[in-house]
Write a structure and sequence with these properties.
Strand content: under 5%
Mean pLDDT: 90
Shape: rod-shaped
CATH class: Mainly Alpha
Order of helices and strands: HH
Number of helices: 2
CATH architecture: Orthogonal Bundle
Oligomer: single chain
Distance between the termini: 19 Å
Largest sheet: none
Number of strands: 0
Number of domains: 1
Amino acid sequence: MISGKTEIDIEFKKAMEQADELEELSCKLCNISNIKLERALTLLTRSWKGQNAMDYMKNTGALKDRLFDSAEILKDTAEMIRRTASVIYTAEMAAVSICNTRW
């Protein structure tokens, strides 16, 4: 059987790993939005002219903004998970300590 402290440590570590994964996804989305999409748009503007090209670029710009917004949401969510996990970890460890002193 796992002790209370060990289980709390394991759950805290899992939460932190999930937050790290979200942060990594956020970075990847930013990379796609800022570098890869921009590079593709640059190549496209060199070879495609006219109203359709301008409309496409406008729509792609909106997509770029949405990707960036999604990346920010992921980053904020990761930070919220970290803060919440830290608060819960501290409270649970304090409860275990209180239980151990009373028994």
